[in-house]
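RESIDUES AND SHAPES:
===
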Amino acid sequence: MTAISPYAAPPALRLGFSILASLLLHVAVIWPVGFSLQHVLPPPPPVLEAMLAAPVLATKRVEEPESPEPVAPPPVPPAPTFAPKPPQPRPLKGRALNTAMAALVKEDFYPREAIERGIEGEVIVLLTLTASGGVADATVASSSGHAILDAAALAAVRRIAGLPSAQRQVLLPVQFRLH
């Protein structure tokens, strides 16, 4: 007599038997759980009762006094007008900053009194440029904290010429450092 081995079957048949056995085991485990869940009923929702109340009727009527003159509505103020915001000044960058710094280096603008007292600082100057790139106006946007440095920075930047005039107003940092 010959023994039949499960390994003698082709691999595809063994795979089919394995899948069938897995399905049967899953059904055997899950079916009783699903069957028992069907018999559990959720609790009934609570019963709401509502009663309509009789409407409340006003027993006393209040009469409004008659006005001898019609009241005019209050005047409506005119609609506000919105002016566009002027463009905000931006700091000089790139070639424009290099041009301005080169012009400042040529100037002897560090005050001798500030050098003797050892005063250092940075002044940010707001420049208003002309169409040709000259300085039309200069004001201190951020002070160094020392009036002597602020005045020296304003005097030096007013002598700068040849800046690119793509922007109408620009910010220029002027640094006072002792080496």
Remarks:
- The beta strands are 90-91, 121-129, 135-142, 169-176.
